[in-house]
Design goal:
There is one protein chain. By secondary structure, this protein is α/β, with parallel strands linked by helices. The chain is about 45% helix and about 5% strand. The strands form two sheets. Strands 2-1-3-4-5 form a five-stranded parallel sheet, with helices on both faces.
Length: about 475
Amino acid sequence: MSAIIPKVFISYSWAVSDKVLELAERLVNPGGVDVILDKWDLKEGQDKYVFMEQAVNNNEVTNVLIICDETYAKKANDRKGGVGDETVIISAEVYGKVGQEKFIPVIFENDENGTPFLPTYIKTRIYIDLSNETTYEEQYEKLLRNLHGKPEYRKPKLSQPPEWLNEEEVSLSSIRNIIKQLNGDNGKTSAKTDFLMRKASDEFSIALKSFGLPLNERVESELIIKKLDATKPLRDYYIDYIEILIGKDMAVGEISAEYFERLHNDIIDSTLDLTSMYPDNLEVYHYFIWESFICTVAVLLHYEKYGEINKLLRHTYFLKERHNGENACNFISFRHHFKLIEGVCKPNCENPNLHTLAGEITVKREKKPLITKDSIADADLILYQLSCAIGVDGWKWFPTLYCYRSRYSQQSIWSRLKSKRYCEKILPLFGVTSFVELKNMIEKCVYDREYGYQRSFDGAPNILNSIVLDEIATLN
């Protein structure tokens, strides 16, 4: 569909006719504006007053440009000459239709005090100022945008209210305030920065405990889903927190590792005094930690902080267990089997045949542009693949979300390993310094059908599904 061509009539005094002609020609070509100008359109024998009246009142005329200089302003105020005639016609329209944006004053001249020469009847109108050579081009562009209905500044599309406004049970204002302070921190005082990060960790822990399920009774699926849904604003603040740390070039891998260790241990500590409980009811906490861990990797992948991901995955986590003390663990401990979500909620959901309800919930909790269905599914799969490459003890990370990726598409993060330059960039992800070491690690990343859903045609792809080992680092 073709755009509407703007059509304008120019009202001016002959004192600035040369400058007006120059402006009119430029508006027509290359400006794309159809201009009605007496020098072009008023022929011998025509009635000048009728010509003016028809031009001003013509419904096809989208705008009338009122070129304001000293002569025009004086004749308009005195109602003299052709300008006076046009003023009678134009002022009737202006006064009769106060909301009109059709009439645009264009300043060509100012008085000795720098005040624009404006006729009295349009003194209150916002104008375009073409009187200054320094700002002429900027103002001309503003005029052209106005005529074409393409303003430089547009009102943003109205969004839904922020999710935190709908928080019924938990206030996240403390976390918002800490994140704002951390974002505004100039980093000059390390003690203050450390305090803010510690405080943020405290507030996330306090808030997460507020979303927990009752531990002394069985819970219905509706309550479980409700609690999970309620954690999304908290998770989104955590993503904001990670972005701020990245923007300040901080050690995100170590900071995040300590955050997850502490969050887990705080949750366990809060249940130690309970003699009887339903331990599966801790699942909302475990889900939040699992999802946040994947989101951390997704954000770090987006910003290509590969070394920080390696630190996060190689960190030794000292995690508490109820009544069993503290154990040294790897990051696989944050991959939780969701008995309530999959065993209680999934049979009662709209589609009980899903491979995973936890995955279905997660891929819909987007926070664009960083956290999307694709980015979070890819990050989860990469966690599985890196657990194979790094060689963690015991089970590998099970990629809950792999089924939300296309089974036919290669992962660009691995298919690009043909490039030597790209390999050099990716080395920190594996914690190695040479292509030989890189190949030795990737050699372990073969397809294993055991890591897949029983009712799924395919298991989770591994790195060697996207790149042939002998092709790594063969191109520049």
